[in-house]
Design brief:
about 425 residues; mainly alpha; 2 strands; about 60% helix
Length: about 425
Amino acid sequence: MSKPPKTTPSSPVTQFEWLADFRLLLYLFIGFRLLMGVVYQPYTFERYKQDGSPTVIERGMSTFGDLRYYYYFARQSVEGDLPYRDYWYEFPPVSIGLFAGVYGIGQLRGQFSYASWATLIGFIMLAFDVGNLVLLRRLARRLHGEAAAVALPWFYALLAAPAIFPWWTFETLVVFLMLLSLVWLLEGRDRRSALVTAAGILTKYTPILLLPTIWRFYDRKLALRYTLIVLLIVALVFALLIAWGGRMAVASLLAQFNKASYQSVWALLDDNLRTGRFSPTDTRLDPDTSFKPYGNAPVIPAWLRLIPFAAAGLFIFTRRLRQDDRGIVAFFSVTIILFFLWTQGWSPQWALTLTPLILLNFPDRNGVLLCLVIGFAGFIEYPAMFMRTAETEGEITTALLPTYVTIILMRTAVLIGLVIALYRLLIQEVGHERA
């Protein structure tokens, strides 16, 4: 009896060559999210309490998110009550411009319900998330080569945070602008990068944290030009808003800096056991309410707790660091994380901001595990724990407090560990220069 011929197994690259087909990943990425949006389309209905008063119940992908909150302001804006003039709104103008614009266009064809508006916003955010996937691949190839350009988009696509947060908030747009500004910066298109950074700041303030990276890694002429482009655009838009809205616009632009602590170690010290809240929407006609924290005053003032984080940032800034593209991305990541540790609260959507930065700096099993830990702990904290606080009007109870404290301390420890790991990455192979 003759023996069967020996076969040589295919190499892993040949065996799984289809994994490198980025079009296939895009089909799966878009298809899965589109189907989730269709099957779990956002909608609301009324249910009556025992006393006969109605309460609005939300279901679908947007449940536990902020879209219904933004829908209220979008509808108000289109109906004539404008943000920055008639009421204060706690973010820069890009987000409310998007939300009100979508509502206004939808209303041209008649009544535009929350379900239709929220679904359309979710699909718009999906488009930006596709952009995030493309930009992550582009950055991964530049920083680590073709293997990482294949693997990192798959990692991103399979994580929960990128699939959920486009239906909860506009952080996906912020991440897109952040990654695009990084891509163009590394590719030498600094003017384009500066314009995108300005757009990012006009969406949410965090993209301004790219400026320290510019001053640390680029020559002073470029850094000055970049900074002037960013600040002049932002200052011009803010000046126009203030000239138009007066004190209401000032209240809007400063509201984030007056917010009480929430979901952080600072919130534990202040005994603020709620999510990050502003005063109710029915108080927004008074600009003074934006300056009143909706919670206890800080035990440690913001300027005082800034000292150790500014010192840590200055220490890293003045060290001899690697000068390649990986050094730039790592330094920007450190800056973002130090800001998250310093600021008065923790927003769950920041897990989405950190995800591509973690993957780009640690393109391996450890990076994926870090994303999973931050995301998993975040979703346990919110919404899993806070959905059990209805009887206490959104405040963490004594029974939940040990778990709540543990999650906050664990997340803080992970972020501190990330800062240390990134610093070690920055001082490795210091002689590396940018190509």
